[in-house]
Design a protein that fits this description.
alpha+beta; 2 domains; 12 helices; Nuclear Transport Factor 2, Chain: A; 333 residues; seven-stranded mixed β-sheet
C-alpha cells in the first residue's frame, strides 16, 4: 500500500512551478501584483487539499486548474486592465494638458526574471517571451474572462479541449467555439503568439544605448531620431497616447520635469520579454523612482514605448525607490 503524499512532498514538488504559474496568472489578470496574490492563493488551496490529490493528472496540471479557477473567480469582481491605446481614444495633442485617471486599474508590466523569461538558455526558460509580450497581454484584456482562459490554456499551454472543458465545467464544443471567437478577436493583434521573439541585433542594442544616453543628457532631438515614423508613446495613468516622433518629442519637451544633463538616470531592466528601463529623477543629492518604460523594438527603430508611473512597480524589479547620486553601482548602469 502506498503512503499518502505529505505536505512536505507538495512543497518540494510544487515550488519549481511557481514562476510559470505566476506567468499564467499574469496573462489572465494583467497585473504582476494580482498575479502574485493569486499564485499564493493557489498554493494555499493546493497545500490544504494535497492529501486528497489522487494523481489522476500531473501535479502541474492540477495546480494550473486551481490557478485558473482562482483567476476566474477574481475576475468576476474586477474590470479589464487596459493601456491608454486600448480605450479607443485618438492620439492626443502633445502640448495639451494631460488627463489622468489614477483610479483605473491599468495594465502592469512583469519582470522577465519573475516568470522565468530572463535567460537566453532555452533549458531555463519556463515562459516563452512570445506569450508575455505587452501587446498580447493588453489584447487578452479585451477578451471575456472565460474566453481568455480558453485561449491561454489551448494556445499557450497547449492543453486538449477536453482538459479545458473539465476545468471550466463546460463542453468540448463550447471550448472550441470559445477558442474560435477568441482567436478571431485577436487576429488583428501584432505581434501574435506565432511571431517569434528574436534576440536584439547589435544595431538594435546600439540604438537602445543611444536612447539611454539621450535621455540621461536630456537631448530630445536625439531621442526623436530613434523612433520609427509611426511610433506610439503612452503613459498610464494618463489616458492620452501620442503617435509620431515629432508629437512624442513635443510631449517630452512640454511635460518631462528634466531640464538638463543628469536630471534623469535610466537603469536597464527586462519586462514582458522586451527591453525596459527603470527611470529615476534627480532631486537634490538623490535620484528618486520616477517610472518604468517598456520598449518595443523593430528593425527600423523604437516602435512603441509604454511609460508606467506606478512606483509600486519598482518593487517587483528589486529596485530601490531612492538612490544616492554618488552611488557608484547606480551611476555605472
Amino acid at each position: 500500500m502506498t503512503d499518502k503524499p505529505s505536505n512536505e512532498d507538495f512543497l518540494r514538488l510544487a515550488d519549481p512551478l511557481r514562476r510559470e504559474l505566476l506567468a499564467h496568472c499574469y496573462r489572465m489578470l494583467g497585473s504582476v501584483h494580482d498575479a502574485e496574490d493569486l499564485v499564493q492563493e493557489t498554493y494555499l488551496r493546493a497545500w490544504r487539499a494535497y492529501d486528497r490529490f489522487e494523481g489522476r493528472s500531473s501535479l502541474r496540471t492540477w495546480l494550473y486548474r486551481i490557478a485558473t479557477t482562482a483567476c476566474l473567480t477574481a475576475l468576476d469582481s474586477r474590470g479589464r486592465r487596459p493601456l491608454p491605446t486600448g480605450l479607443g481614444a485618438p492620439s492626443s495633442e502633445a502640448t495639451a494638458p494631460l488627463a489622468e485617471r489614477p483610479e483605473m486599474p491599468w495594465l502592469e508590466p512583469v519582470p522577465d526574471g519573475m516568470v522565468g523569461a530572463g535567460s537566453d538558455d532555452p533549458a531555463t526558460i519556463v515562459t516563452s517571451r512570445e506569450s508575455i509580450r505587452l501587446a498580447l497581454i493588453a489584447a487578452l484584456q479585451h477578451l471575456p474572462p472565460r474566453q481568455r482562459a480558453i485561449l491561454v490554456l489551448r494556445d499557450v499551454l497547449k492543453w486538449r479541449a477536453t482538459e479545458v472543458a473539465e476545468v471550466l465545467e463546460t463542453t468540448t464544443a463550447a471550448v472550441n467555439s470559445g477558442l474560435q471567437r477568441a482567436r478571431a478577436q485577436l487576429s488583428e493583434v501584432s505581434p501574435s503568439l506565432d511571431d517569434p521573439v528574436r534576440p536584439l541585433s547589435a544595431e538594435q542594442q546600439a540604438r537602445l544605448d543611444r536612447y539611454m544616453a539621450a535621455f540621461e543628457s536630456y537631448d530630445v532631438a536625439a531621442i526623436v531620431e530613434l523612433f520609427t515614423k509611426d511610433a506610439v508613446w503612452e503613459m498610464p495613468p494618463y489616458t492620452g497616447w501620442w503617435q509620431g516622433p515629432e508629437s512624442i518629442g513635443r510631449l517630452i519637451e512640454t511635460n518631462c520635469p528634466a531640464s538638463r544633463t543628469g536630471d534623469l538616470r535610466l537603469v536597464p531592466v527586462a519586462a514582458n520579454g522586451q527591453p525596459a528601463f527603470a527611470v529615476y529623477f534627480r532631486d537634490g543629492a538623490d535620484y528618486h523612482a520616477f517610472a518604468v518604460q517598456v520598449l518595443t523594438m523593430t528593425g527600423e527603430g523604437i516602435g512603441h514605448v509604454v511609460m508606467f508611473f506606478d512606483l509600486d512597480l519598482f518593487d517587483p524589479f528589486g529596485l530601490p525607490r531612492t538612490m544616492p547620486a554618488a552611488d557608484r553601482a547606480f551611476a555605472s548602469k
